[in-house]
Amino acid sequence: DAGVTQSPTHLIKTRGQQVTLRCSPKSGHDTVSWYQQALGQGPQFIFQYYEEEERQRGNFPDRFSGHQFPNYSSELNVNALLLGDSALYLCASSFKKNYGYTFGSGTRLTVV
Amino acid sequence: QQPVQSPQAVILREGEDAVINCSSSKALYSVHWYRQKHGEAPVFLMILLKGGEQKGHDKISASFNEKKQQSSLYLTASQLSYSGTYFCGTENSGSNYQLIWGAGTKLIIKP
User: Fold this and answer.
1) Distance to chain A for B33, nearest Cα, Å
2) Which of A71, A90, B39, B107 could pair covalently with A35 via S-S, beta carbons 3.0-4.6 A apart?
3) Three-state SS string across chain B, please?
């Protein structure tokens, strides 16, 4: 049973560029959440998608946007990249509330 | 709003016990616990819900004091595989899907 799959695993972008990260949830899960994790810190909630809509959003600027497809997979888009966007981006999927989240291994984004 | 975890780090010998605490300034609906090893994804350990019972499996258990807005994770007879950073994540209400994470507690187990 495949868990959460994220691609790519590593990415280097130049300041000002745009990036798209992809996530396939665990089989049977219909909800996808995205997190940003800086080195040595806990993850920060970006947003959660359910039924192809953004259900809740954390304290991130509009440069961060997302999408969920009918097969429950999801994309995270970041425009006008800043050096401070360099981080590990984690995708987590879940089925129902109160059952915990399954995380992918993340995409390491470096902005130069 | 970020929950406060303590201690920040702990070093144990294999077989010793550990307690990791998570404290919030806000009323809590649930507390999640995850373990993350270096370079890997966080792994779900357990969730404690408001009004629920103390959870546990194997030698890892947790408690949730709703009145004090605190949770504790108990690691008994620690094994080398328990090494990693432990995070608590909190939700403030049943209609809130945002998990707010603590800064983590680094646990090192030595043989």
Assistant:
1) 9
2) A90
3) CCCEEECCEEEEECCCCEEEEEECCCCCCEEEEEEECCCCCCEEEEEEECCCCCEEECCEEEEEECCCCEEEEEECCCCHHHCEEEEEEEECCCCCCCCEECCCEEEEEEC
